Backbone:
């Protein structure tokens, strides 16, 4: 499928659960705003794993690498030791080391910049009947490049907060030191905070934050806290960025309990598509999409997770009507 004339190749991964439903809404909005992309469908995830025994194959990664970026719906990751996480495989395979998650609502405007390839998600694990071990990997290279990405964002905003647990986890001393040195070199105002204090302050005083940079697991957890503060996971987009490739996805999961009911919130997916447009340099179109989202929500057109009575398709149609 192609939109209009240009050939920006986008790997389209609808995924599992509500993934196809929210992606359908995002594609309708992209078409309405005049996005000029070529979609390359790629089937990945739990549904495929059940059918074929593989959630993702090497040839899938090769196909994705022939594209500029990925637009991603949602993936179910079962608690099965034979199942390899598709998202972790994509993050490592495409070297998507920076996870950028913006959160905004009624005076709150913050960005969590999460290291995306190491930490406790390093994949270095040992499991037997009496002991399970996961190696937390913090490297100078990984810390430096996420610090650079966070400072680049913070330099256009107000300040940076480095979130860590260096009082207990000695590996975080390396992360804290490199982030602080990088902020000083960029001349970005910064402070640092223990992760438990950051979680507390995100709930009671979220306006104190502007840009947060942190390690993989901490960023994963704090993102869900921030999502709760602004209204729910369904509102939140993300970008997984590397030096060459990018992947854009809503931060919610596959929500199998509501899949097929037509009530999944598409806002996170639509905003992820807007982040993709901005990454392509289509800043004006990205802003138009964001304005259409705000316009729709301000008129009370909301899915049940936000207390509304409208369907996924209703929201998509409202956003499209604002854009055409």
Residues:
């Amino acid at each position: 499928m192609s939109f209009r004339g240009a050939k920006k190749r986008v790997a389209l991964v609808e995924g599992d659960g509500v993934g196809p439903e929210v992606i359908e809404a995002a594609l309708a909005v992209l078409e309405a705003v005049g996005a000029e992309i070529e979609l390359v469908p790629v089937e990945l995830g739990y549904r495929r794993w059940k059918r074929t025994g593989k959630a993702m194959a090497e040839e899938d990664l090769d196909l994705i690498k022939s594209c500029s970026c990925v637009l991603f719906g949602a993936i179910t990751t079962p608690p099965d030791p034979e199942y390899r996480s598709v998202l972790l495989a994509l993050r490592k395979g495409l070297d998507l080391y920076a996870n950028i998650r913006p959160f905004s609502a009624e005076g709150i405007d913050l960005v969590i910049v999460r290291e995306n390839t190491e930490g406790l998600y390093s994949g270095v694990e040992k499991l037997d009947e009496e002991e399970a071990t996961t190696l937390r990997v913090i490297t100078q290279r990984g810390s430096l490049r996420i610090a650079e990405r966070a400072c680049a964002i913070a330099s256009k905003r107000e300040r940076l907060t480095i979130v860590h647990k260096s009082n207990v986890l000695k590996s975080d001393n390396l992360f804290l030191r490199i982030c602080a040195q990088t902020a000083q070199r960029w001349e970005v105002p910064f402070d640092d905070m223990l992760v438990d204090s950051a979680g507390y302050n995100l709930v009671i005083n979220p306006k104190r934050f502007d840009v947060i940079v942190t390690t993989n697991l901490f960023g994963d957890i704090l993102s869900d806290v921030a999502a709760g503060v602004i209204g729910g996971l369904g509102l939140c987009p993300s970008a997984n960025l590397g030096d060459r490739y990018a992947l854009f996805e809503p931060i919610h999961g596959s929500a199998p309990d509501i899949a097929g009911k037509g009530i999944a919130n598409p806002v996170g997916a639509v905003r992820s598509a807007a982040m993709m447009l901005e990454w392509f340099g289509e800043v004006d179109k990205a802003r138009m999409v964001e304005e259409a989202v705000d316009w729709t929500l301000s008129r009370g057109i909301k899915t049940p997770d936000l207390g509304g009575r409208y369907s996924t398709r209703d929201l998509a149609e409202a956003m499209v009507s604002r854009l055409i």
The domain at 99-216 is CATH 3.40.50 (Rossmann fold). The chain has a mean pLDDT of 95.
